[in-house]
Amino acid sequence: MTQHSAERRLNGPQTSGREYTDLSSAEFAVTTELNVTVRLRDGVELLADVRRPAAPGRYPVLVAASPYPRQIQTSGIPLPIVEAGQSDFFVPRGYVHVIVNERGTAGSGGRWSIFDEQQRQDLYDVVEWAGTRDWSSGHVGMIGISFYAMAQMAAATAAPPHLKAIFPVGLSSDLYDLVRPGGLMNKTFIGGWSVAMAVAATRSEHLLRGPLLEAARKLFQNPRVHAKTATMNGEAALGLLQGAMRGSYPSEPWDEIWQNLALSRPFRDDWWQERSLMSRLDAIGVPVHLGCDWDNAPVHLPSTFDTWAGFQRLADDVRPPVRMTLLGPGGLNWPWESLHTEALAWFDHWLKGRDTGIMEGPPIRYVLTGGGDDQWRTADRWPPPEAVLTPFKLQADGALVRDGRTDGSRSYLAHAETAARPSRAAHRPDLPDTLSWTTPPLAADLDFAGDIELRLDAAITDCDTSWIVALEAVDEEGRSLVISPGWLRASLREADEERSTPGRPSMSCTTPTAVPPGETVHYRIPLCPNARRLPAGHRLRLTVGSSDAAGGVPKALGMEHQPAGGVSVNTVHAGSTLWLPVLARG
Q: Of 165, 83, 162, 67, which Cα lies nearest the Cα of 118?
């Protein structure tokens, strides 16, 4: 099937705030081949949809691989599994776009597993297949966000010879940290994602290419409808996705995978280690363009920084070229259309040899958001060298101040909703469910960018608890917005000191250690890195609790986490410190 693609407006920011040169122009008609067979080394056959320029020739190839149905990736439906990129942008500009389903999904043969060695071998074979077709120039890149980004990193660790560059935006290089940040399961994410993925991956070809999906495609291709999806955040829509993708699915392998993710492996063990790429970064020899947006703190944003840091720990002669773009809130949209011009400049440079300017300037570009005028900033490293970790002390009176006292404490009742509290009890504990500390109104604008850490001195009456933290911006009218969340299971408080830095502790989460009841324990709790301007007159608020369910700690993107421990009186001592990376103002 051959078609011509008209230019259309894509949603979301398209670059990291700069102009590029010598970009490929849209000049090719598009031909589409559906359900193309990709044969793997063990004889299993995967299915792919291939869209390529209709004109005879050899073109660079962009591979997008995941368990999400390839059949809906060009539908325009704003679901958080439509993430492979827009074929009608890249193919007219002289690229082949291959969207392939991993084994055991959407008609591909075999049994699906999740981010294991089998997947890495399969992706190696897929890249080599794409690099040796008669329409291929032999230069292969990989594209797509979220799961597709994670697959890019997995493929790159396998080092297929034809792979030349990847563009993993919104990735997680460590599955445990994605599912159980700080040891607390992200139940909103796993509950919505695991069920929806199983349902979507096992739907029939007839349904996925049938009249219902075709009607949805036509609806969302309407320019006015399309424009309304510009601010659709896919991660926040996971609950809606679970409802939208109703239907049964076979128990194998989906229930087993869910049990491993959600039930039977609460601590980091060999199963999780096989699914972590952080120890395999030295095997990646191709250029890597990382990216995310500031809203994505409960899912992929922390790993974006961990992956960047992991690359920086490599020796100079091993580290590949790495860039990182951090978009403002709402920068990633679903279906994924943002940063396509940035990706074009990246692949034009690495796959076509064009001098687009993508490698000029500092390797990090980030939006300093807030104050009504988002600004693009640059940095040679993260945290930015001009950021100074500045202590904000938690006071016994609820104040959050730069120079404070260290006497006194405050307490809250963890998991109060499960406690039987007799209304006539003589000594009924009158404790809140959370604690908050707030700065006075700022006398001047406050800019910060970098890693954020809470160092907490606290005692609990149980042997375990969950520490759930939210850093909020509060405007002059009292409206609040979560800037950065953080999570830690108290029994998993041991940090990996070799990988920890000031402002960014790395939690091992391997072996639980009971908390001595009543004893003061020191905790290092990582909050998600961020960059923000708080205007004069606004305030900064830190909230600590043990639940982010309704009425608990404010949650980012509506994500709730499975709490740890039982009912406990948790006491936070004054002098506990929020470390904020404050930028000096010129």
A: 67
Strands (E), 209-306: 288-293
- Cα(107)–Cα(69) distance, integer angstroms: 9
Spatial separation of the C-alpha atoms in residues 334 and 175, rounded to whole Å: 22
Q: Compute and round to an integer the Cα radius of gyration of the chain.
A: 24
If DSSP states are collapsed to H, E and C, what string results for 560-574? CECCCECCEEEEEEC
- DSSP label at residue 320: P
pLDDT given at position 241: 44
| Structure confidence at residue 396 as a pLDDT band (50, 70, 90) | very high
Q: Which residues of 509-528 are buried (b: 16+ CB within 10 A; e: fewer)?
A: beebeebeeeeeeebbbbbb
Q: Where are the alpha helices (DSSP H) in 245-319?
A: 254-262, 270-274, 301-312
Q: Would you call 399 exposed, middle or buried from its count of C-beta atoms within 10 A (0-12, 13-18, 19+)?
A: middle
Cα–Cα distances (Å) from 358 to 26, 56, 483, 541, in that order, read: 19, 29, 29, 38
The contacts of residue 450 (CB under 8 Å, 6+ apart) are: 382, 383, 384, 387, 389, 503, 529, 531, 581
Which residues, other chains included, contact 24 with Cβ-Cβ below 8 Å and sequence gap of 6+? 93, 94, 95, 344, 348, 352, 354
Ramachandran class of 478: left when φ > 0, alpha when ψ lies in -120 to 50, beta otherwise = left
Percentage of the residues of the chain whose pLDDT score is greater than 70? 94
d(CA 351, CA 62): 10
Structure-token match 């460590």, residue found: 174
Residue 556 phi/psi, 5° resolution?
Answer: -90, 135
Q: 289: closest CA among 226, 348, 236?
A: 348
DSSP for residue 319: P
What gap in Å lies between CA 194 and CA 189, rounded to an integer?
8
CB 468 within 8 A of CB 556: no
Query: What beta strand segments (E) does 239-347 contain?
Result: 288-293, 322-327
455 three-state secondary structure: strand
State how far the Cα of 138 lies from the Cα of 148, in Å rounded to an integer. Answer: 21
Three-state DSSP class for residue 506: coil
Question: E-assigned strands of 196-248?
Answer: none
Q: How far apart are CA 132 and CA 124, in angstroms?
A: 13
Q: Write out pLDDT tens, residues 406-453.
A: 899 999 999 987 776 666 555 556 899 999 999 999 999 999 999 999
Instruction: Tell me if residue 136 falls in helix, strand or coil.
Output: strand
Are 406 and 497 spatial neighbours (Cβ–Cβ below 8 Å)?
no
Q: Is 130 left (phi over 0), alpha (psi -120 to 50) or beta?
A: alpha
Tokens standing for residue 289: 């363009």
Residue type, 211: P
Q: What is the C-alpha to C-alpha distance for residues 382 and 359, in angstroms, rounded to an integer?
A: 18
